[in-house]
Amino acid sequence: MEKGILYFSAPWCESCGVLTPVIDQMAKEGIKIKKINIDYDAQYTEEFKVQSVPTLISTDMNGNEIKRIAAGGMTKEQVLKWFNS
């Protein structure tokens, strides 16, 4: 089963500005990532009941939530450990 990450962020979020380069690097390395700007994609924000940013949600190949984490201040290694566990 192929997993992916939904990355909920906002341009005004300082923690998102720190995490976005980490997420971009992971995407370049082949992890499926969908970036969701909560200011413009309210449908996803409501569907997944996201309360804060940045939030990462691991999903299965059908888009079903596996797990989530409020991801402020996480390093690439921490995100990978969370994603692969």
Question: What is the gist of this entry?
Answer:
With 85 residues, the protein is an alpha+beta fold. The protein has helices spanning 14-28, 42-47, 76-84, and strands spanning 4-9, 32-37, 55-59, 65-70.
Structure description:
With 85 residues, the protein is α+β, with helices and mostly antiparallel strands. It contains three helices and four strands, in the order E-H-E-H-E-E-H. It has a four-stranded mixed β-sheet. Strand 1, helix 1 and strand 2 form a beta-alpha-beta unit. The model has no long low-confidence stretch (mean pLDDT 93).
Number of helices: 3
Shape: globular
From the alpha carbons, calculate the radius of gyration and give it in angstroms: 12 Å
Strand content: 25-35%
Q: Are there runs of 5+ residues with pLDDT below 50, and where? A: none
Strand order of the largest sheet: 2-1-3-4
End-to-end Cα distance: 14 Å
What is the ordering of alpha helices and beta strands?
Answer: EHEHEEH
Overall pLDDT level: 93
Helix proportion range: 25-40%
In this structure, how is the largest beta sheet organized?
A: 4 strands, mixed
